[in-house]
Automatic annotation (TrEMBL):
<dbReference type="InterPro" id="IPR025313">
    <property type="entry name" value="SPB4-like_CTE"/>
</dbReference>
<feature type="compositionally biased region" description="Acidic residues">
    <location>
        <begin position="683"/>
        <end position="694"/>
    </location>
</feature>
<dbReference type="GO" id="GO:0005730">
    <property type="term" value="C:nucleolus"/>
</dbReference>
<keyword id="KW-0067">ATP-binding</keyword>
<dbReference type="GO" id="GO:0005524">
    <property type="term" value="F:ATP binding"/>
</dbReference>
<dbReference type="GO" id="GO:0006364">
    <property type="term" value="P:rRNA processing"/>
</dbReference>
<dbReference type="InterPro" id="IPR027417">
    <property type="entry name" value="P-loop_NTPase"/>
</dbReference>
<dbReference type="GO" id="GO:0003724">
    <property type="term" value="F:RNA helicase activity"/>
</dbReference>
<keyword id="KW-0378">Hydrolase</keyword>
<feature type="region of interest" description="Disordered">
    <location>
        <begin position="649"/>
        <end position="754"/>
    </location>
</feature>
<dbReference type="Pfam" id="PF13959">
    <property type="entry name" value="CTE_SPB4"/>
</dbReference>
<keyword id="KW-0694">RNA-binding</keyword>
<feature type="domain" description="Helicase C-terminal">
    <location>
        <begin position="276"/>
        <end position="435"/>
    </location>
</feature>
<keyword id="KW-0690">Ribosome biogenesis</keyword>
<dbReference type="GO" id="GO:0003723">
    <property type="term" value="F:RNA binding"/>
</dbReference>
<keyword id="KW-0698">rRNA processing</keyword>
<feature type="short sequence motif" description="Q motif">
    <location>
        <begin position="41"/>
        <end position="69"/>
    </location>
</feature>
Amino acid sequence: MAKKQKHTTQQRKQLRERENQKIKDLETRIEEYNPKLSKAALFQDFPISEHTLKGLREAAFIKLTEIQRESIPLSLKGHDVLGAAKTGSGKTLAFLIPVIEKLYREKWTDMDGLGALIISPTRELAMQIYEVLSKIGKHTTFSAGLVIGGKDATFEKERISRINILIGTPGRILQHMDQAVGFNTSNLQLLVLDEADRCLDMGFKRTIDAIVNNLPASRQTLLFSATQSQSLDDLARLSLTDYKQVGTMEALNSKDSIATPETLQQSYIQVSLPDKLDVLYSFIKSHLKSKLIVFLSSSKQVHFVYETFRKLQPGLSLMHLHGRQKQTARTETLDKFSRAQHVCLFSTDVVARGIDFPSVDWVIQLDCPEDVDTYIHRVGRSARFGKEGKSLILLTPEEEEGFLRRLKNKNIEPSRLNIKQSKKKSIKPQLQSLLFKDPELKYLGQKAFISYVRSIYIQKDKEVFHFDKIPLEEFANSLGLPGAPKIKMKGMKSIEKAKELKNTSRQLLSLAKANDEGDVIKEEKAEVRTRYDKMFERKNQTVLSEHYLNITKTQAQEDEDDDFIMVKRQDHELIETELPELLIPTSKRAQKKALSRKATLAASGNPTKLKFDEDGVGRPVYELEDEEEFHQKGDSEKQKEEFLSKETHLMEQVDVEDKQVAKEKKQEKKRKRLEAMRREMEADMDDSEYEDEPVAYLGTGNLSDDIQSEDEHSNDERQPRKRSKYADSSDEDEEEQQLSNGNGKIIEVEEPQTLEDLESLTANLIGGL
């Protein structure tokens, strides 16, 4: 890179004045801009800085979308914006451009601290926002940072004080607010909530409230989502009083507009719950040249379906993504799926919002979503930015009528498809075989069954989801399970509490608990817990299934009760002896204690190892010497020196013997190696003696043919054949006979017919000898 040119004081002053003049002109253009009069079609039509326009051009962002055309002018003027638009309509740029322009006009530097805070409900969406910001803002001087769960919090704490634009998830942002010393939000200019309805729901309610309480009230706030919440309580929590609505749901719900892209072809099929996996497998087998996303309701279902389909091998590359995976695995899966062309991704709703996957052909919803908003976000992964896409939802007969009615209220009417029975394939026998052979896979199937049933139980829309109509046994058999596992249902209060705690930082929970108890937490005195400590604290690590537990329990009892004394009869009458301590135990607990080796050792202590002398008297191995005998032998120090010298001499002798043994082993090893080399040389010499002899190659089934083919290959090394003078010119009556003499010469003759022919042949043979 070329070195920057050094400017004089006068030149720097001129540059500052020129930059200030540009900012004043830009502010004037923003105030005079009227979106109603000037219909902008390109980004360059907006009153934005040259640095931002250059970044947009290099990132191939040229044309405006509807939400960008309506919201960006309002955001540039400093208004709070509440925006809702279809999925894939470019909402990310609608708030990133105002963020960059706001800080540019305020002449923001590294010394000013945090200027903009962007909150995303999922890690994947936060990473995508950060990547887009890095592309369009690379010509600016602002510093941007990404803070999400699964990353090194200590690394983030050291650098968060120098960040101008911070992007992150609610839990990690609140954690840094409580723990990072240099994290100051008193000078914040702009707050952005992407997927605002998800950020404001029950899962993030307490976290968002805690974050907003630490922010200045004079900030500008932007809220964007495909399904916008307009609850007065939610808006009051964010201090939104005078805000502008852009593309709100009233407009989306009009007769002329729908909430899903127009290029999206939506359809549904009616299928019973036990047949869902069969239909999904058949669908994948018939779409091997497509890019698919399959949405399921829980991470346990995703894990089970991925593991079973991976073993069944439908012929398409399979991936899975859910919130219980490590962050590195989630990031790697996102990258691989984005770059792949023909692939199927099993996922939960963790990627249902805002993620821009290129060229997704099909979005399949194996489980019915909890509401229409979730449906809109799921199908929005396809048909983005005007491209074509397809979606398919599998509805049970109980869910069909109610959910289609909910979709119709949002002007969404998917077409019904019928299943071709000729292409439908049942995988129930294969699943049963897999679960029978693999106990861990059976355990995953049980967890998947329980998680689905619980997800139906906690649904609020009882007109769509009917818990009492679930065919439990048939559904369990469709997963390959021999029967329906037992399920313990939780109360609704505990479920709501678990939902609130799900998105709360664990470190924040521990801090809150310590503060409630009045404890002062000091980081240097905190107990260090390694991953091994956490591993040993886990519960139910060996529990696979009830059947597997019974097997292991029976085996453990057999190992424990294995002894040379066994009670074969336990119902006989017992006679009391005169001594009460010799009474035979009558209770089952006492009998088990008397017959169990483990219980006996616990009562009497560990056994002592004995050694027997010549008289057969057993003595402990480490028997203590009598004190008087010890003193009679002399002073203790002298005995100690004698013992050490004796042991030293003994060790020297043993050391010499060990060295001799090692030397002999080394010599023997060397001898064997030389012997093997000698045998190999002899074998090579033996082979060289027979190099000139003919070799038969098997292959035709006829040994003579094989020998003849070998002779044809070796004609260059052999002498040419001699033809007898008795050979007749007619080839049909010739019968050649090959004879070999001692010199290895071959003479070809025909069978002698007269006495003269026989005498001539004899003379030739004698002459050859």
